[in-house]
Write a structure and sequence with these properties.
It contains 13 helices and 9 strands. The protein is of the alpha/beta class. Helix 6 packs antiparallel against helix 7 and helix 6 runs parallel beside helix 8. The longest helix has 44 residues. The radius of gyration is 43 Å and the shape is elongated.
């Protein structure tokens, strides 16, 4: 017993001595190669950073330094040290590991490398078959396939593989099965990444190899439904259920597509109802304008109508009610001062005075007081013939419009506002300009619509 206690005490003492001689926790870290041994003064973080330079511990890759990393170059060479089937299976395994970690983009890249190897084999076999057919047509003797470069990536490059038959039927069958799986797995990555077009393309690749691949049909249906190609999604779903009627995932997609079809149909009905309501309101509006004898037109080609957002001649308060009254967007122009005011909805029952005296006058820019009151201004509207008509301030708007002399152009009525003291001079200038435009004569000034 005493000897046992001495051994324990000696062991504890040696452990304590060892701990005193090791200030850094390097002994707890894996041993590095001589070329990568950490410096004596390295911190734990610096040592970990150094470890990440080794391929076994890498979490990211600097493309600029790949050529300087011998260990990485060796591991990359090992990735292709086998048959195309073995190498593609290796890429599939790495892709599956990334997929389980929800690293969709990384998984996609691994699957892509595996696909590239097996597609190259498919193309090689297709080219070889074509050459054999041509040679057999020229000679009755069966020609031997040309030797291939064994140094190519994914091809056998060791003496142990000297007897490897690349075109063995069983090997070809396994390659096709693996290629089908790789296409399906990459389609799953594209679906997670919302690359729907690429997803359907990879599903097509898998279905080319196996038309009964339910997973490919499921993913194809999901991707097609996501981009609104509903009819094709329905077809893919139906084909999958024909193979596996009890597939829960496909049944769920079938319900999603049915709901999507129902929602689209409901949206179309709403759009059609809105369009019909808009047509009905337009018919009522035109009938109201025609019944009142109001003249409306659009400006000629090459003329850009003013942007008034949603302002337009319309029935208010209910555009669908024939008993509603008309409201007209109206632009008040102050030609002597190059200013304007906009009345969005001038009702046919209202007078100009209600707007001028109510809130328009005096305008904030009128420092001389020329437009201080409604009584101190004269108002004019241009007629369809190019003349002017005085607008009575106390007459309802309908009286001005119903005669047909004044027209509404591009859904907008224009009224000129001039100080009473300067009205005659402005009218004379207006007539002179119109006469010059017409090449002679003078534009008449009609009596006020009051």
């Amino acid at each position: 017993m005493a000897e046992k206690m001495q051994e324990i005490t000696k062991g504890i003492a040696e452990s304590m001595k060892l701990a005193e001689n090791n200030d850094q926790p390097a002994a707890m870290l894996p041993e590095l190669s001589p070329g990568r041994a950490p410096y004596a003064g390295m911190t734990l973080e610096e040592t970990v950073a150094e470890l990440k330079q080794h391929p076994m511990f890498m979490t990211d890759l600097d493309a600029d330094n790949v050529g300087d990393n011998e260990e990485l170059a060796a591991m990359q060479a090992l990735a292709f040290d086998g048959t195309p089937l073995e190498n593609a299976a290796n890429f599939k395994g790495q892709g599956n590991e990334c997929f389980r970690g929800r690293r969709w983009a990384d998984a996609k890249e691994f699957y892509t490398q595996g696909i590239a190897l097996l597609v190259a084999e498919e193309r090689r076999r297709a080219g070889l078959s074509s050459e054999e057919e041509q040679q057999q047509a020229q000679s009755p003797e069966k020609s031997e396939p040309a030797p291939t470069d064994a140094s190519q990536e994914g091809q056998p490059n060791t003496e142990d593989d000297a007897d490897y038959n690349r075109d063995d039927p069983d090997e070809v069958r396994k390659q096709k099965q693996l290629l089908e799986q790789l296409y399906g797995n990459r389609a799953a990555c594209h679906l997670e990444l919302r690359n729907y077009r690429s997803c359907t393309s990879d599903c097509a690749g898998a279905l080319r190899l196996n038309a009964r691949n339910v997973k490919a049909l499921y993913r194809s249906a999901k991707a097609l439904a996501a981009v609104g190609r509903v009819a094709e999604a329905v077809d893919a779903c139906a084909r999958g259920l024909a193979v596996d009627p009890d597939n829960a995932a496909l049944r769920a997609v079938e319900r999603e597509i049915a709901a999507q079809i129902s929602a689209a149909a409901a949206a179309r009905r709403r759009d059609e109802e809105r369009a019909e309501q808009a047509r009905h309101r337009e018919r009522l509006r035109r009938a109201a304008v025609e019944a009142r004898g109001i003249r409306m037109r659009t400006s000629g080609p090459g003329t850009k109508p003013p942007d008034m957002e949603d302002a337009r001649v319309q029935l208010v308060p209910d555009p669908s009610d024939p008993a509603s009254t008309l409201a007209v967007p109206t632009l008040l122009l102050y030609p002597l001062h190059f200013e304007t005011d906009f009345i969005k909805a001038f009702n046919e029952t209202e007078t100009l005075d209600q707007h001028l005296a109510g809130y328009v006058l005096p305008p904030p820019w009128d420092r001389k007081g020329l437009y201080s009151t409604a009584a101190g201004v004269e108002c004019f509207a241009e007629t369809a013939a190019g003349g002017l008509v005085r607008v009575g301030r106390k007459a309802p708007l309908l009286k001005l419009l119903s005669g047909g002399a004044v027209e509404i152009v591009d859904e907008l009525l224009r009224i000129y506002v001039v100080p009473k003291a300067k009205a005659d001079g402005w009218v004379k200038d207006f007539k002179a300009k119109k006469a010059a435009e017409k090449g002679g004569g003078s534009a008449p000034v009609a009596a006020p619509a009051a």
